[in-house]
Amino acid sequence: MSNTQPVTVASEHTALKARKVAFAWEDTPLHWVPGDPFTTHTINVLHLLLPAGERWFVHVYKQVLPHIRDDRLREDVIGFIGQEAVHSQAHDDVLPHLRALGLDPTPYTAQVDWFFEKLLGDRTLPPGKARDWWLKERVALIAAIEHYTAFLGDWVLGAEELDRQGADPVMLDLLRWHGAEEVEHRSVAFDLFMHVDGGYRRRVRTWAAAFSALAFLWQRGTRFFMANDPTLLDRRASFRDFHDGGRRGVLPSTPAMLRSIPRYLSRTYHPSQEGSTAQALAYLASSPGANGLPHPANGGR
Amino acid sequence: MTRPLTVALVAGGALLARRALRRRIGASPLWPMPALEEPVSGRRRENRRPSSHRVLVAERTEPAEGVVRLRLEGADLPPWEPGAHIDVVLPSGAVRQYSLCGDPDDRGAYTIATRVLEGGRGGSRELRERLHEGTEMEIRGPRNRFPLVAAPSYLFVAGGIGITPLLPMVRAAERAGADWRLMYCGRSRASMPFLDELEQAGADGGRVTVVAEDESGPPGLAFLGGLPAETAVYCCGPEGLMDAVSGALGEARAPHLERFTASAAVPGGAFALELRRSGRVLTVPADRSVLSVVRDELPNVSYSCTQGFCGTCRQRVLEGEIDHRDELLTDAEREDSMLICVSRCRGGRLVLDL
């Protein structure tokens, strides 16, 4: 059985608590990775997806709470819900700033809102089997998405090339605070999925759905930003640009992303095997946004 | 069909399809998905509580005995409507709420007035002793939980410094040509601010009745029972006066009230909590939160940060006056919901949809 069960790294567990954050966006430029609109907008897609997406996580998890029969997992889920709710709010606050800079995100976000609120929302299903199935399906989807948020969080914590490129400190702090909390709570969604269902076929099916959806939403998001950026003449966006960004270290690299796929599909996979809780906690202890400190480059708030 | 023709047709078809797709994605970024009719994302910040502003005490006067009036000048101050109040952050960090009593058309400044209470919590004394002309300070708001509704006629009942939110209402009613009356009660004429201005405004037709207790004793409110139904009644003043007005109006109608101090139950004190759907009535003692009391009964109620910022524990309130202590909800959300981890009840009873 040893090669068919998830292998947990117990030392990576930590108690979870939502942190109150504050970010001042007034001084963040449109191209916050200077001179690199493609990278800027590829990462900006997070602000399009996360407000609605993480609101949906919270909505689904509130419904799962009564089904949890393990006290530690319940505590983890409660902490997870608060962190996700604050993430959603923090990214939501970036959107008016983008609008003020001449890049109105509403056409895209209104459709993402529909995607999470309607397509993935509560269906009018009879109580019982059908409703349970849909809840389990969504819990499994969230576990698959969290595999990628943890991957991205781990990446951004170590993405020193963004610092070298002079990326805006407030935006970097938002991404790294968020990334660090994603790493910190990376096991919760998977543990919850294993607790309420854990079926391997469901894991594979929902991974495929989540991966396709993310790829679809992300490429459309990048295209949307590039096409509507008022300052750009060359509005094209291609996979090649993404691959190049990965090679330069300003975006996650394509090979690393491909390698993460079989890991999630392995029967012994457990999120605690990837990323470092210690690194995440170290960042969280020093993050200006999470500790109420001014961002140095902005001369305080 | 010949081979070159097939190739040309397929290539042409592909080109047309690509163009059609591009056009659709250009108009609808996530085509073929529809959009949510009322988008949610990106609206949080604009709906949130107004941000803070730096203001300068430009003028300080004493319009009556023991009353301090401050004119606070600032740039880009948000517009406000009669009945609005602001949060004033005092030098000690304490936050107090004051009604705006100036002119809403004066966009460069807010005016507040307060009676200095020697036995109070210290806010008004600090305001008198530490805020002088030239002092810079922070305010938040404005917000309005005492808005002036449109009505053909109004009766305003003010008790002492409770005149402050009613003063802009009187001016607005006068300007709108409404039929208004003001009953202004106080201990003595010398202690009642803005008397001159009000008596001037109401000079035609005796709209203003001044009841100074040292001259004419306590106000007679029996006439309230005979008011026409379309008259909107606004009252701000001491608890006793507001209770008397509510009582005199009778069961069937409620006056619009603005409380400067929390009602009889001390804020933070114990109160009754009804969970309507579960059909249970609990008691929230002074030293426990609503959330912790609810959790004893309903262990699966959702919550997380327990500090009033994540919003997970928001619940619908069916009855009762909420003492909001969170930092998250918008004014519209505050109307009928609360974060049960930090917020409490101003009155003696709260009913949740749980």
Automatic annotation (TrEMBL), chain A:
InterPro entries: UCP07580. It comes from the Bacteria. It holds the Pfam family Metal_hydrol. This is Metal-dependent hydrolase. It comes from Streptomyces wuyuanensis.
UniProtKB/TrEMBL annotation, chain B:
It comes from the Bacteria. Keywords: 2Fe-2S, Flavoprotein, Iron, Iron-sulfur, Metal-binding, Oxidoreductase. GO terms for molecular function: 2 iron, 2 sulfur cluster binding; metal ion binding; oxidoreductase activity. PROSITE patterns: 2FE2S_FER_1 (PS00197), 2FE2S_FER_2 (PS51085), FAD_FR (PS51384). Its cofactor is FAD. Residues 50-149 form the FAD-binding FR-type domain. Residues 271-354 form the 2Fe-2S ferredoxin-type domain. Signal peptide: none annotated. This is Ferredoxin-NADP reductase. It comes from Streptomyces wuyuanensis. The lineage of its organism: Bacteria, Bacillati, Actinomycetota, Actinomycetes, Kitasatosporales.
